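In response to reviewer comment 3 from the previous cycle, which asked for concrete evidence that the modeling workflow produces usable outputs, we include below a single protein chain processed end to end. The sequence was submitted unchanged, and the resulting C-alpha cells are shown without manual editing.
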Amino acid sequence: MKALTLIFVVLIALLQYPLWLGKGSWLRVWNVSQKIDEQKKLNVSYKLRNDTLRAEVRDLKQGNAAIEERARSELGMIKEDEVFYQVIDQPILPATEAAPPAVDTPALNTQPAETQVSAKPKE
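The workflow returned the following C-alpha cells.
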C-alpha cells in the first residue's frame, strides 16, 4: 500500500512539473504579462510623440507660420524692413532698497596683514 501511495505522489509531481516549471508555466505567463503591460505604456508615449511629429510635419508642409517660427527662433532671422528689439528683463531696485557699499574694516580682520586675501576681483 505504501508503494502505491508513493507511485501516485510521484505521478502527480510529474504531472504538476509542466504547470509550475515547464515551457508554458504560470511563472512565465506572469512574466510575459508584465512585459506586455510595460510595452503598452511605452507604446502610448511613442504614439503621443508620433502624433506631435506628424502635426509638425503637416504644419511645415501646409503653412508658412511654422517655417517662419523656426527661422526666427533657431536661425535668428528677421523679415525684410523689420526692426528687431531685444528686451532684457532685469529688476531695477529703488535707491532706498539698494545695498550699502561694502566697507573693509581692519579691526574685524583676524588674519595677519601679510596673509589677508582681498575680496575685490582683479581686473
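The mean pLDDT is 79. We consider this sufficient to address the reviewer's concern, and the full set will be provided in the supplementary archive.
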